[in-house]
Design goal:
- It is a single chain.
- The chain is α+β, with helices and mostly antiparallel strands.
- The chain has one domain: 3-Layer(aba) Sandwich (Rossmann fold), CATH 3.40.50.
- Helices cover 24% and strands 30% of the residues.
- The chain contains 10 helices and 17 strands.
- Strands 2-1-6-7-8-9 form a 6-stranded antiparallel beta sheet, with no helix packed on it.
- A hairpin with a 2-residue loop joins strand 3 and strand 4.
- 33% of the residues are buried.
C-alpha cells in the first residue's frame, strides 16, 4: 500500500480544506525518474515530503492530522489511550467541537497478488459523548471505500475520479452495509480487508512524541556503526531485557573508549544523564529509519533538526533519497525550520510552505518557485517567498522595544 493523497475537510483549523499529495506535481524528466519512486505507468512520488514555515504556522497540527490518518488507515482504535497520548496531551487532536464532524479522504494505491488498484477511503469523524462512560470521543459516523483497477487510468484526473457514472467498474463499499455491522465504531472498515488479506497494511513510524522529549523510541539492537556515527567515543552500547519472576527489566551496558569501566544502567531514561540529547534521540530515530526503509513505509518526524547538527540531519534525509538504500519506496515526512536543508532536495514539489491566518494553509513550493536551480534558502531567509520569514515591521518593533527596555531603569 502507498499513500497518494490526503484531503482534509471541515476541520476547525482547516476550514477551507487542504490537500497533502505524495505524488510529484511537476513534469518528471527522464533523467529524474531513477531518483523517484515509480508507482505505475507515468506516476511517481517523492522520497521525502518537507513542511516548512514560520513558528506557530501550524506544522505540528498538520502532522497530528497526518498521524491520525495513518493510524486510521492501520485500523487502530482512534480512541485508544496509547494512540491519543502519541499525538498530544490534548485528546482532541482534530480540534473538533462537541457534536461536530470532520471529513478525511485518503487516496491510496494497492498491489497484491498481481492485482493493482487505486482506492479512496472517505471517512466522516464525529466527536460526541460515549454513553458507556459519559466521555467525549471520536466515532466514525460515515465511511465509504471506493475501489477501481489501474487499467483505465491515464491521467491524474482519471486517478482521482471515483464517479460511478464515468466508470461502471468502480466498486463502492459502505460501512452501513451488513458486512461491517460487527465493527467497532472507532475502527476503520479497512480492518475487515486486512483480515481477508485484500490489502496489506502500510508500515509507518510516528516520531511525534519524541520531538521535545529525548528518550529511546525503540529497544532493538542498534548496530555499532549507528552508535559510533552519533558518538565516536562509545565503544559499545548493549540492550538486554532480563525477565525475573515474570517481570521484565531493562539492562543496559555502556562503555566509552577512554574508560575501562562498563556503566550498568537499569532504565533507558538514565541514558539522558550520560549521553547527549542528540545521541539519545538519534539512536531511536536512525533505528526507526532503518525499519521504515526495510518495510517501504512512511516515517514522520517533527522538527527534524531538533538536537541534530546539520550533517546528522542531512545524513538521515540522504538515507531516504539514496536509491541504493531506499529500494522499497519508503518516504520520510518531516518539518523543519532549517531552510538550508531545502537546498539539498531535488524537487520543489516535495516541499510544502505552511502558513496560518485564522486557518492553516498549505502551498507547494513549486507553485511559487518554478526553477529547481535557485538556492531555496536564500528565498526563504530574505522573505522573497511569502510566509517564510518574519515580517519586517514586526522585526523593527521587536528591536525598538528591546532597545527601550535595555535603556530604562
Amino acid at each position: 500500500m502507498k499513500l497518494l493523497k490526503i484531503v482534509i475537510e471541515d476541520l476547525p483549523l482547516f476550514k477551507k480544506g487542504t490537500e497533502i499529495s505524495f505524488l510529484t506535481e511537476s513534469r518528471v524528466k527522464e533523467s529524474e525518474k531513477h531518483e523517484l519512486i515509480h508507482l505505475f505507468k507515468n506516476f511517481y512520488f517523492n522520497k521525502t515530503l518537507t513542511f516548512t514555515g514560520l513558528n506557530a504556522a501550524g506544522k505540528t497540527q498538520i502532522f497530528n492530522v497526518i498521524a491520525f490518518t495513518m493510524s486510521l488507515m492501520q485500523a487502530k482504535p482512534i480512541n485508544s489511550p496509547m494512540l491519543q497520548s502519541i499525538f498530544s496531551n490534548n485528546s482532541n487532536v482534530l480540534n473538533l467541537g462537541i457534536e461536530q464532524k470532520g471529513k478525511i479522504s485518503v487516496y491510496f494505491y494497492s498491489h497484491i497478488d498481481g492485482q493493482a488498484s487505486v482506492n479512496k477511503l472517505e471517512v466522516t469523524i464525529l466527536r460526541t459523548k460515549d454513553s458507556s462512560d459519559d466521555e467525549y470521543k471520536y466515532f466514525i459516523s460515515e465511511e465509504i471505500l471506493y475501489r477501481k483497477s489501474t487499467a483505465g487510468i491515464r491521467s491524474k484526473k482519471d486517478l482521482y475520479c471515483f464517479n460511478k457514472k464515468e466508470n461502471e467498474k468502480i466498486q463502492i463499499l459502505d460501512r452501513k452495509s451488513e458486512d461491517f455491522l460487527a465493527l467497532s465504531s472507532d475502527v476503520s472498515l479497512l480492518n475487515v480487508f486486512y483480515n481477508l488479506k485484500t490489502y496489506k497494511k502500510l508500515y509507518y513510524r510516528n516520531m511525534l512524541r519524541f520531538t521535545d522529549f529525548n528518550m529511546l523510541s525503540t529497544f532493538v539492537t542498534v548496530p555499532l556503526e549507528v552508535i559510533q556515527f552519533l558518538d565516536p567515543s562509545i565503544e559499545f552500547l548493549k540492550f538486554d531485557i532480563v525477565e525475573e519472576r515474570g517481570e521484565k527489566d531493562f539492562k543496559i551496558e555502556l562503555k566509552f573508549k577512554w574508560d575501562e569501566k562498563i556503566v550498568i544502567l537499569d532504565s533507558p531514561t538514565e541514558l539522558n544523564t550520560i549521553l547527549s540529547s542528540g545521541t539519545v534521540k538519534g539512536l531511536g530515530v536512525f533505528m526507526s529509519a532503518i525499519l521504515t526503509l526495510k518495510n517501504g513505509g512512511i516515517m514522520l518526524i517533527d522538527e527534524l533538526e531538533n538536537h541534530f547538527n546539520r550533517e546528522i540531519a542531512l545524513t538521515l534525509i540522504h538515507l531516504f533519497t539514496d536509491r541504493k538504500i531506499n529500494t522499497e519506496g519508503a518516504v520520510l515526512v518531516y518539518t523543519t525550520h532549517y531552510s538550508e536543508l531545502l537546498d539539498t532536495l531535488d524537487r520543489n514539489d516535495s516541499i510544502y510552505i505552511v502558513s496560518k491566518d485564522n486557518n492553516i494553509f498549505l502551498k507547494k513550493l513549486s507553485d511559487e518557485l518554478k526553477r529547481n536551480d535557485i538556492r531555496r534558502s536564500d528565498q526563504f531567509i530574505k522573505g522573497i517567498l511569502s510566509h517564510t520569514a518574519p515580517k519586517y515591521d514586526a522585526e523593527m518593533k521587536l528591536k525598538r522595544v528591546i532597545k527601550k527596555i535595555s535603556k530604562s531603569e
